[in-house]
Records
---
Amino acid sequence: MKETGAFFLDFVFTFALASLIYVSVGVPLIRPAFGYQEATDRYNAAAVDSGFVIEDKDGNFVDAPLDTTLSDMELYVQYETVEQRVFDYFTVKIPSSERLVYLETDEFNPKSSSSSGSEEFKIEVGKWVYKNVFLIKEGELNALWCLPSSEEDYKSMPKPSAALQADMNGADQEKKLAAYRTLYLGVVGSSADDTSCLWSRALTHFKSQPEILAAQEGRTFATYASLYPSIILSPLVFFLMFPLIFKNGQTLGKKICKIALLGNDGYAIKTPALFIHYAILILYFYLFLIPYPLYSFMGFCLILIVDYMVMILSKYHQSLHAMVARTISIDAENSIWFVSKAAEQRYIEHHPSSLAARIQKEESMDEMKKTGVDPVAFEREALGIFDSSTLGQNPYVKKEKEEGKEQEDSSKNS
């Protein structure tokens, strides 16, 4: 738990420093240097040309007003305003703007064939808009719109179908409301996510404009450029600078949680192992340098989950990066360690009654027991003490006698 808490603290510290660098350096200095404002101006200019946004009295660019707080009839009658904006975008705004164009996917470019002010041009554009935007096919009945009766009809936006017009002009209020609602849903849509409506098709076309795409790319590039110093420097501070300043490979979080980082052999961590241990962690954070926020965040979370699961399931509770670097984390408050084996031995020789000496003695005894050696007898022999009762006895003869007695007893029992 301490290890998890220490990493959480380090993550919070890293994020806080990254935010500070972004606000104090990225936004005021780096983002303008990479043309963020110029790209934003390009976007706003193209948006204003489209008629889909307006500049308010405070200089902010907002969606052209459509009051969604109204109810029933007052709300539905606004469909005509949206319909007019869509029709004007394709027939007036694009032809008259230097920033907006008909797309290659439109397979339509009347600008190259006729003057934008001519009657021929208006009819040509109107036919394309009726067919591809309003989805009115020649000779096919349409649930929302009337079929054009002459080429002159293509100069103005489509009128509601005869059935809807009859309901809209009739005395039955329920049918009238239903007709307006049908047109509203067909033009504006049931929600902002409705992609089947007229407004959604127009916005999709607008967002695919080369000028809009270039402006968005410029803003995205400038934004990421302003984030790079935060992403690069913050992990270096907390996962490299602090471990080099503090003793025993501690980060700020480890120091607060009183955790020390040692080598796999239980001795003080060496500089190469420290670099490897924290370089892997820093690389985790550098996943945010990938210019796709969703993928970089998912990758960061996934690798942290894998790292944490390895720590939980491994025998010595080592994380993935600790295994690679051959390091272990210990409780700094209740542990003792040395720089090297030689330093430990020298200390024990000068402090035979110390905790380190007792630990070494216990470990030696445990090892003897595993190999079948009697630690008490071994210690007696090492100190020159022996059992006088065994003088003159051959241990091998004694062993043979004991084995013979065991066989005799077993035969009697059988």
---
Amino acid sequence: MALDEYPARRAFPGVIGRTFDVSEPAWPQPRRAAEGAPNVLFVILDDTGFGQLGCYGSPIETPNLDRLAAGGLRYANMHTTALCSPTRSCVLTGRNHHSNHLAAVTEVSTGFPGYDGYIPFENGFLSEMLLEHGYNTYAVGKWHLTPADQGSVAGPYDRWPLGRGFERCYGFMGGDTHQYYPERVHDHHRVEPPRTPDEGYHLTEDLADRAIAFIADAKQVAPRPSRSSSTSPPAPCVRRITSRASGPIVTPAPSTTAGRPTGSACSPGSASSGSSRQERSCRGTTPTCSDGRTAARTSDASMPA
């Protein structure tokens, strides 16, 4: 029998009688993602450009990324911050990196406005927003958003992943780490690799296994949507938001591309290198997807949802 639930800040709708047999229970309604909420996957690859991705015309074979791109949209005319910490802050908040006080990476904080490395808490993270809408939220891999003086296990932890809307995290806090002997954190504590390189350990596989385990945990009981972050060499980062239902996959332009997309979502077609030809503007056009749908225009660093 279905439980009788009621939303927050509403009066108890059940019945409290003199005895249990004449009473009717009701429970506060937990936060759940809306029916049909989409799966959304963000992949951020450091030090990568159009020339490294087959779906943008590269001679390098990237069949899995090509398959994702073929099922969604490819963005052109994207503005880049050209650095990893600023890019991540833009993707997670939808704001300009100077507004996030991350005009440079966290390690080169200068102590001046826009450059101090302290992302204002009023600049909400997408993870915080999705958590309020019933999503599971996970961070797996490179973080690089905590001020350098707050990245030790001494804390404070309010600017670690679990302090910015992620329920779980697994990865490394800084800009890079060793692929065979990495520094890793699991939630708020340091952990050692499960085996040595001689026994087959590599960070990429470890992060992938942990991301799978997080999602498997979420599917055990009443699965909700989720969000994560994952890394592979040299220091890429994956931000993942998933829900029970599958939705359209939107593939943003590669590399440290985030910032403020100002054109429209479209496929820029094939290109052979990272030249300006590959980032040709889509302004003034009405782009369409491969199935004939009109592509959505974006006016800021908004997230696909």
---
Amino acid sequence: MAARNLVALAPVRKARGVHWSDRARSLWPVRTGAAFMLYGLPFIIGIGIPFLHHPLQRVVCGIAVFFGAMLGTFSIERTVRPGLQWGHWVRQALAAHLPIFILAVNLVLAILLMPTQFGPRMACVVVVHFTVRYLFLAGIHYRVLRWVGLLRPAGERLRSLVTATALGMQQPVPSTSEQQSDVAQAWALPLQHELIFTTGLLAICTDEEVGAVVAHEMAHLSESRAMLAGRILAWSLPSMLIFIPPMVQWSGPPSAILLLLVYFLAHRAWQHYSKRMEERADRAATASEQDAGAYARALCKIYEADLVPAVNAGKRASHPDLYDRMIAAGVTPDFPRPAKPEHASFVGVACLVLLFIAVLLYQ
């Protein structure tokens, strides 16, 4: 994994000295390829190895591959942040990737263990799967981050900005936390009525810019109950897939294909509606800014710090393009509109394809 990333990063290193949007566009296919390796490789190996007969053996093998693949992404993050220290990065990487991987393991394990007939075993698999999934929806991983010291109550600066913005928007003051991370991000937890800001974002944005980002996230906390129900439903969508084994047994492969089609269409519909909610939150942030252009400047700083492309690779992104968001916020970017980045690097796709072929041949 580390060798694959070093090879794939060669074009990004050659792009040093060019505008950050061009470097971000060069880095994006490397990142998406690494994501495929990080989350796809463990399941290809864990499910495909023929001498692992018990599902738990496959899961253990997949977990080992996941941690190896995660450690291999260090070279990518060092490209974004050259001064990043190993130990500091490990803690951040575990906080970012481990919850996603646990949810993926929970899904795959439920599919592997799901019996084809109704009974106590099916009930047990369903209950355990949904319990794990909704513990994460309730924020159990944030409790763990607080316990290990990576998530702390907001400092005086952030608390005062959140309070002032909430009063200006005539909304209740939400609970706010700061996560120790070099990544510049902020997000809302509508179920918990809480905001989380990373220390990376707070370090690069002025008070006016942070206040504008607060307004964006506050707009998510004021979403309707129907939207909140939609978020819970979207969170539950992957759980449909655990019923593939019994459906194949009862009605044959066409029923499983129909289930996958329903999942895909529902997921695409949610992506479309979710992007509309992001546009709504952007309008709220622009309307509440005290300094004209503060929100657009904050967005540009965040994307530049994390080297996220200014134009999305496809239409299925959860947020609109940065370029369009800045124009909608009343600021024309000081750089030309970049071309769309590629989806994944050739090296990453080739590694997965070759591995998948090798597993099929070995069996």
